[in-house]
Write a structure and sequence with these properties.
This protein has a 16-stranded antiparallel β-barrel with strand order 1-3-4-6-7-8-9-10-11-12-13-14-15-16-17-18. The longest helix is centred in the N-terminal third of the chain and has 10 residues. With 301 residues, it is mainly beta. The two termini are 31 Å apart.
Length: 301
C-alpha cells in the first residue's frame, strides 16, 4: 500500500459534501520558547510541538456501517519544515470502516503499542516527551488495524499488522476501562527492531489523576532486555489550572537515563491554553544535567 497522497483531499471533500457525512477540519498550533542549559552548552529557541492540521469524516453507508477517513499533517511555523526538506510531515492518515463489529482501518497510524501509553505521558509532543527515553513510540506506514467493540465489561482489543520491506510485524493492545481505572497491556513483536511489553494504568482520584507505566523491550540484533518506568501526577488546582509532575527512567535509548519534569497549564478558554515546564534530563554518559525551561501556548480549532 502506498502512502496516502494529499491530492486525494479535494475528492474526499467533494464526496463528503454530497454524502450523509459528519465531517470537520481541525488544527492545533503548539509553540513554545525554550531555554536549554547543559553546562557549557546554552541555547534558546522557538519551536513547534507537533503543530498539525487535518480533515476527518464519518460517512454513513447504512444504519450499521460507516466509511471513515482522516488526513492529518504536521507543520512547523517556526522553521517552515516539519520533515527533512518537506513542509508537511504525515501523521495519522487512513481510511476505514466502522460498525457493530468495531473499526477496521488502513494507512499510516500510531501503533497499538504506542497508544497503549494512554495519557500517562503528561508532556507528550514536547521536549520532555517519553520518546526521549523509550522505544516503541512508533507511527507506521502500511498498517492495517482492527479495534473491537467492547468484548465485555469495558474490555477492548486492538490488533495491528505492519508490513515492511523485510517482513510483517504485529502490535497489540488489550484495554480495560471503568469508572475507577483505565489500564492497557501493549505487545509489540519487533517493529523498528524491538520486541516489547508495556503495562499502563491511569487512576483518577477526584481532582488528581495518577499515571503508571512499566515497559520491557528486547533488541532483536543484540538480544538484550531493557526496562523502564514512568510515574506521573496531574492535579487540578483550579477550574482552569493544573499542576503536572512526572518522573521517567529507562535504559532503552541511553543507559541509566532519567527525566524529571514539572509543569503548569492554564486553560484560558476552550480554544487557548498556556503552559510552562521545567525538565531535567541526565544519564550515565552526561557529565552535566540537561535542564530545559519552556513557556508556550496551544490553540485548538
Amino acid at each position: 500500500m502506498k502512502r496516502t497522497k494529499n491530492y486525494l483531499l479535494p475528492l474526499v471533500l467533494m464526496f463528503a459534501c454530497f454524502a450523509d457525512a459528519d465531517s470537520s477540519f481541525y488544527a492545533k498550533l503548539n509553540m513554545s520558547f525554550i531555554d536549554v542549559d547543559q553546562g557549557s552548552r546554552k541555547e534558546t529557541d522557538t519551536i513547534s510541538n507537533a503543530s498539525r492540521i487535518g480533515f476527518k469524516s464519518k460517512i454513513k453507508i447504512s444504519n450499521d456501517l460507516n466509511f471513515l477517513i482522516q488526513i492529518e499533517n504536521e507543520f512547523d511555523p517556526a522553521d517552515g519544515k516539519a520533515d527533512i526538506g518537506k513542509v508537511f510531515k504525515q501523521r495519522n492518515t487512513y481510511i476505514g470502516l466502522s460498525g457493530n463489529f468495531g473499526r477496521i482501518f488502513m494507512g499510516t497510524h500510531d501503533t497499538a503499542f504506542k497508544q497503549s501509553q494512554l495519557k500517562v505521558d503528561l508532556f507528550n509532543d514536547t521536549q520532555s516527551d517519553i520518546k526521549k527515553l523509550f522505544v516503541g513510540e512508533n507511527r507506521m506506514q502500511d498498517l492495517i488495524g482492527y479495534t473491537s467493540p467492547e468484548i465485555f465489561n469495558g474490555l477492548k482489543l486492538t490488533i495491528n499488522n505492519i508490513k515492511t520491506s523485510e517482513k510483517s510485524y504485529q502490535s497489540y493492545s488489550f484495554n480495560y476501562k471503568n469508572k475507577k481505572i483505565s489500564t492497557s497491556l501493549g505487545i509489540d513483536t519487533g517493529t523498528e527492531g524491538f520486541k516489547g511489553k508495556r503495562f499502563t494504568a491511569l487512576i483518577p482520584l477526584q481532582k488528581t489523576t495518577i499515571g503508571l507505566m512499566y515497559q520491557t523491550s528486547e533488541e532483536d540484533k543484540i538480544y538484550r532486555s531493557l526496562s523502564g518506568h514512568v510515574f506521573s501526577i496531574k492535579h487540578q488546582l483550579t477550574k482552569k489550572g493544573s499542576l503536572m509532575i512526572q518522573d521517567a527512567k529507562s535504559d532503552m535509548k541511553v543507559i541509566n537515563a532519567k527525566q524529571t519534569s514539572i509543569g503548569y497549564s492554564y486553560d484560558i478558554n476552550s480554544i487557548l491554553k498556556v503552559y510552562s515546564t521545567l525538565s531535567r534530563f541526565k544519564n550515565k554518559l552526561q557529565s552535566d544535567d540537561e535542564k530545559i525551561i519552556s513557556i508556550g501556548f496551544e490553540v485548538k480549532l
